[in-house]
Design a protein that fits this description.
Strand order of the largest sheet: 2-1-3-8-7-4-5-6
CATH topology: Arginase, Chain A
CATH class: Alpha Beta
Radius of gyration: 18 Å
Largest sheet: 8 strands, parallel
Strand content: 5-15%
CATH superfamily: Ureohydrolase domain
Number of helices: 10
Distance between the termini: 6 Å
Order of helices and strands: EHHEHEHEHHEHEHEHEH
Shape: globular
CATH architecture: 3-Layer(aba) Sandwich
Helix content: 25-40%
């Protein structure tokens, strides 16, 4: 039986819309509404945030609040690394998806020799860099930090020296880079990305599984296909951004996109992944209750969290 540890990262400095730092509390409220004592079952750790930066002027327009994001990477990576070394399975609940860069770093720091695969369930590719970003929001960049990519071929911005230096530190964190090979990333339900990200996906031959493919083939077949594709990897990290869900249900997130997964499809798929012994870390991110009605997004996220953890406990 796996020992689960919850790592709470209520940081939203990487997002463009405010409110994701409240996502974890919203999921806890959902648990209470379902009369579940899930959150008192497991040891948990809460990571200190840099959310006070949201009140300060932005110094790096192409990598907003990057110095704060670097601090989060350091804290999250240490927590994830320590958890894995102490034989815990880290379940990370984070505000915005920029935090996932720290999670990936922590897995690699704990298992430097491991070949790490990433299953990225998200409407977005999160493969921008300060040189290509249309928004400057760091939650669009975590996978580029993980694969150590600047994407200079598609450069749009001249980035100042300080930002460039901080960006390099983000990629080097844990003194291992790249942390993941691009071909060891699988995108699921990806449907909203820019041409600069498309360039990287094609350049590296990254695997993309569309919503319609999930719907056509079902969770069982897709999970088998993905795990077979990642069969060379010794460890797998699953990152679930709630905006992978269809915008009809995913109101409570900063960047909803139509033509996404249904709740049941996401839940079935993630539960199937959790049956694999290679999966060593799971993250749920981008719940924003300030944009939601009746806490629906958090309730869906809680259902997925609870079922996933149940599967882990049974393995």
């Amino acid at each position: 039986m796996k020992n689960i540890k919850l790592i709470e990262v209520p940081s939203e400095i990487g997002a463009g819309t405010r409110g994701a730092s409240m996502g974890i509390d919203a999921v806890k409220i959902a648990a209470l509404d379902f009369m579940s004592n899930f959150f008192i079952h497991f040891p948990s750790e809460k990571i200190e945030t840099e959310n006070s930066l949201l009140f300060e002027p932005i110094k790096s327009p192409f990598a907003k609040r990057i110095h704060g994001v670097l601090n989060l990477y350091e804290r999250v990576s240490k927590s994830v690394c320590d958890s894995i070394k102490n034989n815990f399975f880290p379940v990370v609940l984070s505000g915005d998806h920029s935090n996932a860069g720290g999670t990936i770093a922590g897995i690699k720091m704990a298992k430097p020799k491991s070949k790490l695969g990433v299953i990225w369930i998200d409407a977005h590719a999160d493969l921008h860099t300060p040189y290509t970003t249309p928004s400057g929001n760091m939650h669009g960049m975590p996978l580029s930090t993980a694969i150590d990519e600047d994407n200079m071929e598609c450069k749009v911005h001249d980035v100042d020296e300080k930002t460039a230096r901080l960006w390099d530190q983000l990629k080097m964190i844990g003194k291992i880079h790249p942390k993941v090979l691009p071909e060891d990333i699988v995108f699921i339900s990806l449907r909203d990305f820019e041409k600069e990200e498309k360039f990287l996906i094609e350049k590296h031959g990254m695997k993309v599984i569309t919503t319609s493919e999930v719907r056509r083939n079902g969770a069982e077949n897709i999970s088998r296909k993905v795990l077979r594709y990642l069969s060379d990897c010794s460890d797998i990290y699953v990152s679930f951004d709630v905006d992978s869900l269809d915008s009809a249900i995913s109101k409570g997130t900063g960047t909803p996109v139509s033509n996404g997964l249904k709740e049941r499809e996401a839940e079935d798929l993630i539960s199937k992944f959790m049956q694999s012994r290679k999966v060593c870390c799971f993250e749920i991110t981008e719940v924003n209750p300030t944009l939601d009605k009746e806490n629906m997004m958090a309730e869906i996220a809680f259902n997925i969290l609870q079922r996933s953890v149940n599967v882990l406990m049974m393995n």
